[in-house]
């Protein structure tokens, strides 16, 4: 319960600072506060849905490999990724879910979206895709410990870019925009799907933004699954 409360206050404080900036200066790159609230809520909820099955569990991969725990998992007649993910399901992400849903519930009636069955399905599919993307990226980092023996430092890099994904990428320089839309696809965690729903232009993608936002998550999940299998084949055990 203390973790729920502390995480909730931490996120709320960060979002409140953005609210002060946006209301004081009238917007950020053409995004008003209600648009940003939608973006932040989507980002928080999508991350929580993906990370609750992966982050806490796979963040420990370096220790799991070093201590020989992964060797014992390989002797069990279960999928190693599924065992790690579902045995360590983290309910502490409940505060993220509450905050994300709350922000979206407040923002959705106020944003300029022509709601229909199609846009509702687009929102649900994009959110599912964002959750898959989060889980896939964390899985890729965790699996790297099977090959490199070290992976925790990569999570630091991950969260540096994850922080950027809270904002409209149009406020960044063109090279960084391209990077967040291609090699490091953090823009699909919130910006691309939300911009597509709001009818805002998305650099490089244009009218394809909505379709790409839905497709990125499943594609990333397939890539992560393939890399996990590859890493297991390369894994030589704690003895080297």
From TrEMBL:
Signal peptide: none annotated. Keywords: Membrane, Transmembrane, Transmembrane helix. The keyword Transmembrane helix applies. The keyword Nucleotidyltransferase does not apply. InterPro entries: ABC-2_transporter-like (IPR010390). The chain crosses the membrane at residues 37-56, 81-108, 120-148, 169-188, 208-228. It comes from the Bacteria. This is ABC transporter permease.
């Amino acid at each position: 319960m203390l973790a729920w409360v502390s995480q909730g206050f931490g996120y709320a404080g960060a979002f409140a600072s953005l609210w002060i900036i946006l209301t004081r200066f009238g917007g950020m790159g053409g995004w008003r506060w209600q648009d940003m609230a939608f973006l932040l809520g989507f980002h928080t909820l999508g991350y929580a849905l993906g990370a609750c099955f992966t982050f806490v569990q796979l963040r420990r991969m370096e220790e799991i490999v070093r201590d020989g725990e992964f060797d014992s998992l390989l002797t069990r007649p279960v999928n190693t990724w599924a065992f790690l993910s579902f045995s360590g399901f983290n309910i502490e992400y409940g505060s993220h879910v509450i905050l994300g849903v709350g922000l979206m519930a407040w923002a959705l009636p106020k944003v300029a979206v022509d709601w229909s069955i199609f846009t509702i399905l687009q929102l649900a599919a994009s959110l599912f895709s964002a959750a898959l993307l989060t889980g896939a990226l964390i899985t890729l980092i965790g699996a790297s410990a099977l090959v490199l023996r070290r992976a925790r430092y990569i999570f630091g890099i991950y969260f540096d870019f994850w922080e950027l994904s809270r904002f409209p990428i149009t406020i960044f320089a063109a090279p960084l925009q391209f990077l967040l839309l291609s090699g490091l696809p953090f823009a699909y965690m919130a910006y691309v799907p939300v911009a597509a729903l709001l009818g805002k232009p998305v650099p490089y993608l244009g009218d394809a933004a909505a379709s790409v936002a839905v497709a990125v998550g499943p594609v990333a999940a397939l890539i992560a699954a393939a890399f996990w299998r590859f890493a297991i084949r390369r894994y030589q055990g704690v003895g080297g």
